[in-house]
Amino acid sequence: MSRDLGLLPDTVDELDRVRKACRAMVRRRAATSGGLTLVPLPGIDVAGDVALLMELIPAINRKFGLTPEQIDRLDTTRRVMVYAMLKKVGAGLVGREVSKRLVLAALNKVSLRLATKQVLKYLPVAGQAAAVALSVTAMIYLGNSHVDACYEVAKGAIRK
């Protein structure tokens, strides 16, 4: 089984299992992100989101066999297929070394939610609840978008 070698999944069934596991990982990180929103120090939640994503994105890539190192270990044919799918899907964080700059660019996609969260977290109870909800949904959106991109790349490489 290719999972033991850290390579691309061999079948769509295996790929579906990886996607399910990654979505569960995203939900756990989203819950952590929501908890960080309740910390009353300015900026700690955004710094926490960056740290969570810097851990989450490479972990998802690894599970799908799409880290730069894993892609380099593929045979030439599969490597070419993966790179073709990366280009087709336009997956910005798939198959790349994840840097703080890339994570901040990803967070920029949900910047309105994050800005709103910063304001809401200082309002008693209802504002804090809304801030937690925004934080959780932003993390789920970013994480699941990355899972979907990895899934499409890996699925395309399997089918070709």
Question: Per DSSP, what share of the residues sits in E-state strands of 2 or more residues?
Answer: under 5%
List low-pLDDT spans: 1-5
Q: Could you estimate the helical fraction of the residues in percent?
A: over 70%
Largest sheet: none
Q: Give average pLDDT, whole number.
A: 79
Count, helices:
7
Number of domains: 1
Give the beta-strand count.
Answer: 0
Global Rg:
17 Å
Distance between the termini: 19 Å
- Computed structural class: mainly alpha
What is the helix/strand order? HHHHHHH
Overall body shape: elongated
Description:
- The relative contact order is 0.20.
- The chain has helices at 12-37, 44-64, 68-72, 76-89, 100-108, 111-120, 126-159.
- Helices cover 74% and strands 0% of the residues.
- With 160 residues, it is mostly helical.
- It has one domain.
- It starts with 11 loop residues before the first helix and ends with a helix.
Layout: helices, strands, pairs:
Blueprint: H1 12-37, H2 44-64, H3 68-72, H4 76-89, H5 100-108, H6 111-120, H7 126-159
Helix pairs in contact: 1-2, 1-7, 2-7, 4-7, 6-7
Please give a quick description of this structure.
With 160 residues, the chain is mostly helical. The protein has helices at 12-37, 44-64, 68-72, 76-89, 100-108, 111-120, 126-159. The protein has one domain (2-159).
